[in-house]
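Design a sequence for this backbone.
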């Protein structure tokens, strides 16, 4: 086992979310002895399994896309086969009101051309406007003004009607978890570049057929342990103190290097204890956050959706997923509300009642659900606003690096940005 040259006990990773586990897997692969400290009793952070009344659910419905290159690579590395664990669907935006766009399995741009021209309830002029928009972005090498919002970009390119309300706005809110008026146009364009105009498979939607824990966190922890590392659950790191050649955690164990892989609000509490990290700290302190609400409704087994994922419009819920078609209990639906909005004023009971009404309007007569559960993540992601300063993995302190979906990246707060930052942090540590 490498000890990173200081004779201390390898590397500590603080946080067992997808970023921390990606860092730990990468360090373990390099032969570094790694210890992961996780405050809670479960792995996975914001993308974890939760058990409610004996039913395994996710703390929030997640969707991956084919462009999540590093997440898929790391899943394979730890023995979690994406082909088996994820349902791969060609890009499809299907709404209860009849709007339907589906990309055939053809190379770009034929897949998009065919999807747009063949979409139901999308005017021919809107399909052409969409192609003009993507061509114009490509001509500009997918660079837009850093302070531009996604809404302004769409306005400037005359993206209106169903094209806007059924395609671009929902894609932006789902990917950036930020309303278009406040969302960074540049990050949205990066997502479009890699998701829509890259290799054909990049635009595929990948929906888990199992719980989030089995997708990566559990096999990643097993991988770390099999490579001589340790995972310490239920261990809150309250203090990181620096001494020549290393760091002491909670006034106890000493390590030659540390990856701080907590969510931004918790990372800030640790960074404030260390000198010379003002820049990273002030970037984190300037973050605003956006919620995501997932409302699970267990209907009788006979209830199902016409597709694994269905768009809703005109109400508070944006998407509904049929967990029964995704390896979960039959009749279990998961309605998702991304980003902040008026729904935040509602109680859980009022939210559930509103979503029941929206589902009935979309699907026709429905019996009452047997049970329901609302899971609200108030700080699901940072608000992905224009020209947002995000801290780099490298810090001013040698041997101390940051990882997390919020770290400097071309992507919004997603599993892929978390995983990429974990890999980058582990690599940076090797170079430090
Ligand atoms: C409801 C919801 C839906 C989402 N949907 C999608 C989606 O569809 N697609 C997508 O790509 N992304 C989605 N995301 C975003 C994605 O889940 C996050 O970007 C990603 O999980 C962040 O991972 P992370 O490792 O950076 O941080 P976290 O998951 O927050 O991990 C940090 C970990 O550190 C631990 N910790 C904190 N402080 C300490 C401490 N002092 N000591 C020890 N441990 C500590 C925490 O307990 C946590 O486990 C969604 C998020 C939510 C909440």
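Sequence:
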């Amino acid at each position: 086992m490498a000890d990173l040259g200081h004779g201390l006990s390898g590397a500590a990773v603080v946080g067992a979310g997808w970023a921390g586990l990606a860092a730990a897997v990468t360090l373990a692969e390099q032969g570094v002895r790694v210890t992961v400290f996780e405050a809670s009793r479960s792995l996975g952070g914001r993308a974890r399994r939760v058990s409610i009344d004996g039913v395994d659910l996710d703390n929030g419905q997640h969707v991956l896309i084919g462009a999540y290159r590093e997440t898929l690579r790391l899943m394979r590395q730890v023995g979690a086969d994406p082909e088996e664990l994820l349902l791969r669907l060609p890009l499809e935006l299907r709404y209860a009101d009849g709007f339907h766009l589906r990309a055939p399995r053809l190379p770009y741009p034929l897949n998009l051309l065919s999807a747009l021209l063949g979409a139901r309830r999308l005017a021919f002029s809107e399909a052409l406007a969409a192609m003009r928009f993507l061509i114009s972005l490509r001509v500009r090498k997918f660079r837009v003004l850093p302070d531009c919002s996604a809404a302004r970009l769409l306005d400037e390119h005359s993206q209106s009607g169903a094209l806007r309300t059924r395609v671009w706005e929902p894609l932006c809110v789902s990917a950036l978890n930020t309303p278009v008026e406040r969302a960074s146009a540049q990050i949205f364009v990066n997502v479009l570049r890699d998701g829509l105009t890259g290799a054909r498979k990049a635009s595929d939607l990948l929906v888990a057929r199992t719980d989030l824990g089995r997708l990566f966190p559990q096999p990643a922890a097993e991988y770390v342990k099999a490579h001589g590392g340790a995972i310490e659950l239920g261990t809150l790191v309250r203090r990181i103190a620096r001494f020549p050649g290393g760091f002491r955690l909670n006034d106890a164990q000493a390590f030659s290097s540390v990856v701080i892989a907590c969510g931004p609000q918790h990372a800030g509490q640790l960074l404030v204890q260390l000198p010379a990290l003002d820049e990273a700290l002030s970037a984190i302190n300037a973050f605003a956050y956006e919620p995501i609400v997932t409302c699970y409704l267990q209907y009788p087994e006979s209830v199902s959706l016409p597709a694994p994922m269905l768009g809703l419009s005109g109400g508070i819920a944006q998407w509904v997923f049929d967990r029964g078609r995704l390896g979960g209990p039959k009749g279990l639906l998961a309605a998702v509300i991304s980003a902040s909005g008026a729904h935040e004023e509602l109680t859980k009971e009022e939210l559930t009642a509103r979503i029941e009404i929206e589902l009935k309007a979309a699907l026709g007569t429905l019996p009452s659900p047997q049970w329901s559960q609302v899971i609200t993540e108030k700080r699901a992601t940072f608000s992905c606003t224009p020209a947002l300063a995000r801290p780099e993995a490298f810090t001013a302190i040698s041997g101390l690096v940051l990882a997390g979906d919020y770290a400097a990246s071309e992507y919004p707060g997603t599993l892929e940005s978390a995983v990429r930052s974990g890999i980058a942090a582990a690599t940076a540590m090797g170079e430090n």
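The pocket of flavin-adenine dinucleotide is lined by residues 14-20, 37-40, 45-47, 60, 62-64, 236-237, 261-263, 266, 292, 294, 377, 380-381, 404-405, 413-416, 418 (CB under 6 Å).
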